[in-house]
Specification:
disordered C terminus; 4 helices; mainly alpha; 7% strand; 2 domains
């Protein structure tokens, strides 16, 4: 049985990976400024990518991927869905869930969530 991942360490490294990417600096410069061993940065980058890939591979195609959201009962405002690919979809009140699923699958079929019923 493998070692149980430390969620706090994962969060810390996800944040560092995001900061490096957003900084526009090379990995070597970013790590040098933070006194982080470059090999450790690349190890976490690879490890977190593999964990994400495993999570996607373990999901069945019919498994629900939407996160349940509770909306105000009488809200007339549209809902914004931020797709993993970066697109923002504005969903009007009274939307058809199957239509939303088709839109999200069209945006990126490999990571598109499916509706939860």
């Amino acid at each position: 049985m493998g070692k149980v991942p430390d969620k706090k360490k994962e969060q810390h490294w996800r944040r560092l990976l995001h900061e490096q990417k957003a900084s526009g600096k090379s990995v070597a410069v970013f790590c040098g400024q933070r006194r982080i061993p470059v090999h450790q940065f690349y190890w976490w980058q690879r490890t977190l990518r593999e964990r994400a890939d495993q999570g996607r591979a373990q999901r069945s195609p019919d498994e629900a991927h939407f996160i349940p959201v509770r909306l105000p009962l009488f809200s007339a405002a549209p809902v914004e869905v931020v797709h993993p690919g970066g697109c923002v979809v504005r969903v009007p009140v009274g939307f058809d869930p199957m239509s939303l699923r088709r839109v999200l699958e069209t945006l990126d079929p490999s990571s598109s969530p499916s509706t939860e019923t």
